Amino acid sequence: MASISFKNVQKTYDGNVVAIKNIDLSIKDREFMVLVGPSGCGKTSILRILAGLEECTNGEIYIDQKKVNDLPPKDRDISMVFQNYALYPHMSVKENISFGLKSRETKGFLHRLFHSKEYKSIMNSIETRVQKVSKLLSIEHLLLRKPHQLSGGQKQRVALARSIVREPKLFLMDEPLSNLDASLRLQTRTEIIKLHKKLGITTLYVTHDQIEAMTMGQRITVMNNGEVQQCDTPENIYQYPANKFVAGFIGYPPMNFLDGELSVSKNEISVSCKDIKLSLHHNNILKNKILEKIPLGNKKIILGIRPEAIYDTIESAGGWPVENNSFEAKIDNIEPLGSQNIVFLKHGDTTLVSTLNPRSKIKEDQIKHFFINLDQIHLFDATTEQSLLYPLKSESHI
Ligand SMILES: Nc1ncnc2c1ncn2[C@@H]1O[C@H](COP(=O)(O)OP(=O)(O)OP(=O)(O)O)[C@@H](O)[C@H]1O
Ligand SMILES: [Mg+2]
After folding, report:
1. What does the H/E/C string look like for 64-96?
2. pTM
3. pLDDT at 360 over 90
4. Which of 44, 177, 223 to mutate to test the pocket of ligand 1 (most atoms within 8 A of CB)?
5. Which residues line ligand 1 (CB under 6 A)?
6. What residue ranges define each of the domains in the chain, with the CATH number in brackets?
């Protein structure tokens, strides 16, 4: 098993492409850490640097407190699973799984020793390991097939088996599910999590899919532009995003953002966006929190409202006085998802997205009042985009 830490790691390709700016990151022993972020933010570069396939330009990488910058890949005891499973097409599933093990464990064996007891015992132990891992991944019945006789999901399980059979102390997975269709993704996602629970191998899992990140990670590291934006549990990342990027990246449909001004005085605290005005001073906790953190006066902010913080009845929105938290909007479009409806609301020039119960009696083109639960709003500094105010329930978190 292994813990990992990156200290001030930077990577520049060809002297001018800055892929990783300044990464400090620790992964605990036996942890399942997900690295998530948009395309090109540096995720694969981090994996390749950790595996030793790429050198970092600056900084230090430790596995179990041992600096590994100069350790060759083969000595790092890491196994990597890629998006394209890269199985050997001419070999059977069984040969694909055992190939790496055989070549590693019989390296240096002379041909004349092939009939020796020692050689046979190595082969027997490899056979046992292959059987065990095939059972674990439910591919025992596929062992004699060639890769072209397998479905995408089966190929992916063979690729996983090939990595697991090595019993590495660290697993790196780079978007391993992106070639699978929706239902197979879901199924394989669950299998990978179960495997991790069973084997407890420290895993760094890369995806650009925030739902995969939320459902799989014990902790999530959100990256953008070669930098770590936030590293925390899925729940904390969702509830208490550190900045606008994280708030917008995690959550579907994404958080609504409105540019506006926060006005703070002793008697009145309000947020004015172009078409929406919210009065915040009625709630003592909210008021005290703002007075404590934000100086008196006016400040340019970005108001963040998650789709589920917009309601179609005043009661469900926390019972705030109507004049403080409501706005009138036209229902532009309703996308039914079964368990909930995604509803697009037009208020002046502003479009807001909300998620409403499918039983709510609303119709497209209808004009009605909607309500924002003020306990659930986020405020971000308009310049730095850092979070100024989390939802109220986060009181204990700050
Ligand atoms: N070998 C390379 N030579 C030059 N630039 C590279 C090389 N590999 C990656 N880059 C650049 O470094 C940046 C980070 O790339 P990286 O592959 O780490 O991103 P990623 O987050 O894995 O993206 P994706 O989600 O698309 O796989 C990108 O701008 C990319 O173009
Ligand atoms: Mg990548």
Report:
1. CCEECCCCCHHHCCEEEECCCCCCCCCCCHHHH
2. 0.90
3. no
4. 44
5. 13-14, 17, 19, 37, 39-45, 208
6. 4-245 (3.40.50.300), 254-397 (2.40.50.140)
